[in-house]
Design brief:
48% helix; elongated; two-stranded antiparallel ribbon; 107 residues; 4 strands; 3 helices; DCoH-like
Length: 107
């Protein structure tokens, strides 16, 4: 069975901490062990985030999610090229519902 990155890093961290604790001089660099701890903490926090429930921004004209922000904080649509023309939906599900309703109104 294939291990996930989270499982692999957890096992690696346990291994390194055990051997660092048992030897008079740590065989693994303590800064490297701390980097792995920080990475694991970040991954565990991100695992709990449901990205579908976050606000979703789409282009007002082409309904594309391909928006980028330039150095002057302008929202630029990569599909149609519009600048600062965005619709913000409370969740991704609201965006999908908007697309379905828009499609049904056109037919």
């Amino acid at each position: 069975m294939k291990k996930t990155l989270l499982q692999y890093l957890t096992e690696l961290l346990e291994f390194m901490e055990y051997h660092n604790k048992m030897s008079p001089f740590p065989p693994f660099d303590t800064e490297y062990v701390q980097v792995i701890k920080d990475k694991l903490d970040k991954m565990k926090q991100e695992e709990k985030i449901n990205y579908d429930l976050l606000p979703t921004a789409a282009c007002k004209y082409c309904d594309s999610l391909g928006l980028i922000q330039d150095e002057f904080d302008n929202d630029y649509c990569t599909k149609c090229g519009e600048i600062n023309a965005i619709n913000i939906f409370p969740t991704y599900y609201d965006y999908e519902l908007y697309l379905i309703n828009k499609k049904n109104d056109n037919y």
